[in-house]
Write a structure and sequence with these properties.
Blueprint lengths: L5 H8 L15 H5 L27 E15 L5 H9 L7 H11 L1 E19 L6 E16 L1 H9 L4 H6 L15 H4 L3 E22 L3 E23 L2 E8 L28 E14 L3 E15 L3 E4 L17 H6 L13 E2 L3 E4 L3 E11 L2 E10 L11 E11 L2 E10 L2 E4 L2 E6 L3 E7 L12 E15 L1
């Protein structure tokens, strides 16, 4: 595997989201410091992908823009802290027999790993003349991933042909044992999920006030559109006695497709590393209300639309358990081994068929928010985000969070709260934002103790140093 792909493979390969990313706000250091609570807080370009109606709210500046805001978070509900860090940061360390047994046991979970990573390369918002609302554009990259493994899939990922279920049905040479019939994967791997979505997005949004009773009630409406370049998707789900699997991965993933590459039905792409293998269109709709200048409410539906994947598309249907062509891990390269599950047969759980294209829905979500703004020094809110479909890149479960912003002095804003769901346990976030009339910079985390916690480890960080606001309203 290419050296420059190390960090990407570690982040993506296996974690693909559940979409646990898949939440846009993780690149917003203010929102991350509130644990993801954002619906009633977001203004200007931060509203894109969250609630475009907020672009119609009264802004504090004529123009706002940012360059290079980034955030990432990865967690597990089953691995110990030491196992978690070995997989992410010390994957080449030797794996002893006792560690191998413990690793298989702890990989068995419906939330083995969840990942979200977002980057806002550029964002710009403009407040239009009175009565015309606000307009925003942004260029973003989004990554989300989710992995769930049952006992058998965890055992095969780690031990290959030496997994207990493989030895039950095959001898050491790979021949079926007399009188035994290998089970279907839908039965043997029930509950296994491996999902990934990595995209480039070009966003535009508009919001405008539609009802106004000065000092009493304001209602704004907004809409957003994004053109999406697909860098990679993988969606393997084995639940309820059925199996569904497909992937379309850019050359950056360095997948070995073996004999599939020469199949005339396979649109093999092996050009530039970040070559898109899919394209699509997404839409957001939202409403936001302000009652008495204190209470704020928001509702939005985001990520409506679909993707069409055309490069390196492979699919798989239900099939009998095959004999793995590898003997198991000698180190902690679990993530790389899961990445390999999307390549040529022999080293994979699945035997794939070539396909010309695959159409898939975007990870649609319903977002609800409520908040109170006591003054410019204190604001609190509650968010609920519900996934509307089960596709790669969506949340594996609803998200609930409560957060607040407090300014003890004019130049410093503190953020905190409590959040849970979306594949993660309950977490307490913390954020620090330095504020001037024209410039903001901040650093935050979704979990104050997650990186050090022995159970339910969670590492997350968001930061940005080039957020600017120009011109007073």
């Amino acid at each position: 595997m290419k050296t420059r792909l190390g960090w990407l493979t570690a982040a993506l390969g296996l974690l693909s989201a559940a979409p646990a990313l898949a939440q846009n706000e993780i690149s917003n250091f203010s929102a991350t410091g509130r644990g993801g609570v954002v619906n009633t807080f977001a203004l200007d370009y931060q509203s894109l992908g969250i609630n475009p109606a907020n672009l119609g709210r009264q802004a504090n500046s004529l123009v706002s823009f940012t360059v290079g805001e980034v955030g990432a978070g990865v967690g597990s509900q089953s691995l110990t802290n030491s196992q978690f860090k070995q997989l992410l940061f010390h994957a080449n360390d030797a794996l002893t027999a006792a560690e191998r047994t413990a690793l298989v046991a702890n990989l068995n979970s419906n939330n083995t790993l969840n990942l979200n990573a977002d980057a806002t390369a550029f964002g710009l918002a403009v407040t239009l003349p009175p009565g015309l609302g606000g307009l925003a554009v942004a260029v973003r990259q989004r990554l989300s991933g989710h992995v769930a493994l049952n006992q058998n899939s965890a055992d095969i990922i780690v031990n290959g042909r030496n997994a207990a279920i493989v030895q039950q049905y095959y001898d050491a040479a790979g021949n079926p044992r007399s009188g035994s019939q290998p089970p279907l994967l839908s039965a043997a791997l029930e509950g296994t999920e491996m999902q990934l979505a990595l995209t480039n997005e070009f966003n535009v949004g508009y919001g405008v006030e539609v009802v106004s009773v000065p000092g009493v009630f304001h209602l704004t409406a907004g809409a957003g559109y994004r053109y999406i370049q697909g860098i990679g998707v993988a969606d393997v789900r084995i639940t309820g006695g059925s199996l569904s699997a497909y992937s379309s991965l850019s050359p950056i993933f360095d997948i070995n497709y073996g004999s599939l590459a020469s199949n005339p039905s396979f649109n093999y792409q092996n050009g530039k590393d970040l070559q898109p293998v899919g394209r699509g269109h997404g839409f957001d709709l939202g409403l936001a209300a302000e009652i008495g200048k204190v209470v704020r409410l928001g509702v939005s539906v985001t990520d409506l639309g679909s993707m069409t994947w055309t490069g390196n598309v492979v699919t798989a249907n239900d099939q009998a358990l095959a004999f793995p062509q590898y003997s198991g891990l000698t180190n902690y390269q679990v993530i790389k081994n899961i990445v390999d599950q999307f390549g040529d047969q022999g080293r994979t759980l699945l035997t794939y068929q070539a396909a010309q294209e695959r159409r898939a829905s975007l990870p649609a979500k319903l977002r609800l928010g409520g908040g109170v703004r006591i003054s410019e020094f204190f604001e609190a809110g509650l968010d609920v985000t519900v996934p509307l479909n089960q596709v790669a890149g969506n949340l594996p479960a609803p998200f609930v969070g409560a957060g607040l912003d407090y300014k003890p002095v004019r130049w410093l804003r503190l953020s905190s709260g409590v959040s849970g769901g979306a594949g993660y346990r309950v977490n307490v976030p913390l954020g620090l934002t330095f504020v001037t009339p024209v410039w903001e910079a901040g650093l935050s985390t979704r979990s104050v103790v997650g990186y050090f916690s022995e159970s339910n480890p969670y590492a997350s960080v968001a930061l940005g140093f080039l957020r600017f606001k120009i011109g007073k309203i």
